Amino acid sequence: MVELARQCAELKKQGHAVVIVSSGAIAAGREHLAFPTLPNAMSSKQLLAAVGQSQLIEAWERLFAIYGIKIGQMLLTRADLEDRERFLNARDMIHALVDHDIVPIVNENDAVATNEIKVGDNDNLSALVGILCDADKLLLLTDQKGLFTADPRKDPSAELIKEVKTIDDTLRRIAGDSGTTLGTGGMATKLQAADIARRSGMEVIIAAGRAPNVIVDSLSDSPQGTRFLPVEESLENRKTWILAGPAPCGSVVIDAGAVDAVEHKGSSLLAKGVTKVEGDFARGGVVRIMDEHHLEIARGIVAYSSADLVKIAGEHSNKIFETLGYDHGSVVIHRDNMVVIQE
User: Fold this and answer.
1) 23 labelled as ligand-binding?
2) Is 93 annotated as ligand-binding?
3) Which CATH number fits domain 248-340: 3.20.20.70, 3.40.50.300, 2.30.130.10, 1.10.3210.10?
4) Residue partners of 319: CB distance under 8 A and separation at least 6
5) Is 330 known to sit in a ligand binding site?
6) Which class is 2-240 in CATH?
7) pLDDT tens for residues 187-231?
8) Does 186 show up as a binding residue in the annotation?
9) Is 89 annotated as a binding residue?
C-alpha cells in the first residue's frame, strides 16, 4: 500500500487525477478483531466490514498524508448505480472530490450490501467507478503479469498478451481458465470489467500490482501487462448507464435474423424476432438479449413487460395492439436504449 500511494502521488505531481478502488475492509476487520470465529452468515461479513472499513481508510489516510494528499471515502452498492438519479448524484460527488484535489478511495459498502445489491467484485466496481468519473484509463492490479495465451502456472509455453483490440470468445475462454489467487475477482471478472470500461472510452491495463513502478508505467507508451484499447466509438452517457448500472432482470432470446439485424444493421429489436422470454420483469427494465445458443449479444431497456412479451413474441409489430389491446410502440427494445456487447 505504501508503494501504491507513492506512485499515485507521483501521478498527481505530473498533473493527473487519481481515483482508487480498494478492497480489504473485511480482511482488515478480521485482523483488527484478532481473527474471531463467526457464523458463516452475511451478517458476519457485514460485521467485519463495518469494523474494517475505518481501519482500511485510516491506513490509506496515513499513507497519503506522507505526500500531503487528502483522501475522501466513497462507499457504493449496485443500488446506487441502478437508479438513474442516484447514479448522477454519485457521479457529482466523485467529480467534486477530484475537482478539489482529493483522492477518492472507493469500496463496495459491504456493511449494508446484500447479495441482491452487491456488485460482487472490485474489478467490475472499478469499471463502474471509471464511468462515474469519466476516466481515461483503468488500471486493474492483480497477482499476475497480465492476460496470457494460457494459464502460465500450468503451461510453461504461455505468453503474455501485450495488446488487445477485440474481446472475443477465445479470449473469454482463456480468462475463464486463468484465475488469480487473491480477492474475489479472477481474470474472467477483469475481462468483464475491461469490456465495460473500454466501451465507455477507457484504455484498460491488467498488470501485476507488485511490479516496480507499474502505476507510473501505465501512462507510458509501453505499459506493463496487457493493454486493452478503447472502442473507437465509445458509448454516450445513457448507454453507459444501461451497461454499468442496473443488473439485468431477465432475458429475451431472439432468432438468427434478429441477431444479424441487431449486431450488424444497427436495428431495434422487434417482437417478430423474439423466440423466448426468461424472467419476470416490468416495462422499463434492463434485459439481456440472447441468441439461440444463450450467448448474450446485447443489453437494453425493454418497452414491454415479460407478460406482454410472451403474448407478442414472434408477432409482426402491427399485431401488437390487436394482441394486447394497447401498445407502447412498434419495437421491443429501441436502438437508442440498447448496447451491443458482441463485436
Assistant:
1) yes
2) no
3) 2.30.130.10
4) 312
5) no
6) alpha beta
7) 888 988 898 888 888 999 999 999 999 999 999 988 999 999 988
8) yes
9) no
